[in-house]
Amino acid sequence: MHWDLHGEVNGWGGPWEAALLLPSIATGIYLFILVLDWGRLDFRAARGMAAATRRQVRLLIVLLLGVMHALILAASLRGGAPRANVLMACISLFLVLLGNLMPRLEPNAWVGIRIPPTLENREVWKRTHRMAGRWLVVAGLVGLPLCLLPGPSTHVLGLGLILTPLGAGAIYAYVLRHRMETAGTLPPEAS
User: Fold this and answer.
1) Extended beta strands in the chain, E state
2) Dihedrals φ, ψ of 86, to 5°?
3) Would you call 157 exposed, middle or buried from its count of C-beta atoms within 10 A (0-12, 13-18, 19+)?
4) Contacts of 4 (CB under 8 A, 6+ apart)
5) What is the mean pLDDT of residues 181-186?
6) How many CB atoms lie within 10 A of CB 13?
């Protein structure tokens, strides 16, 4: 089934589609991440990210997609839509866990705030991801009580909870790089 923003079914698929579509997407995403990990892209600020951190991020993504698939299948078997507040709770927990991993990320090909200032300078990357990690944890913790709100408002708030920390992190990275350039403290790896 396909649901609109109001949680009403507006499209139907077959049982095989319901059973295999999301696991296929999750598998494709996981394989794509593995391919990106194998082909070491050359960033000026690149350092090797710890294998344990890479595994934790991949596991976190697979868990989120698996839980969402289980919720969608359960709702489909009941003939309804997944409860928005349960999806919001899952996303909120994901944000808390991802926020805790953000400070340990190194410049890489697939996860993090990957924009020119962060990919060109390791100090900008580290400081941006520490700040964004804190914001993601706060967003996730704010999202948990919002799970009690009625359905459609939860979708809008959930999107805001995801975009606000990431947008703030991107703006922070540009501002930080500009401040470091102005103060003459930008390390030579960014030039």
Assistant:
1) 2-3, 9-11
2) -70, -40
3) middle
4) 10
5) 83
6) 12
Sign of the C-alpha dihedral computed for residues 140, 177, 106 and 24 taken in this order: positive
**Rounded Cα distance, 92 and 129, in Å:** 18
- The tens digit of pLDDT for each residue in 115-159 reads 999 988 889 999 999 999 999 999 999 888 887 877 666 767 777
d(CA 91, CA 64): 8
Place of tokens 């009580």: 145
What six digits make up the tokens of 139? 């967003």
- For the stretch 4-33, pLDDT in tens is 666 666 776 777 776 777 788 878 877 877
More confident residue, 136 or 190: 136
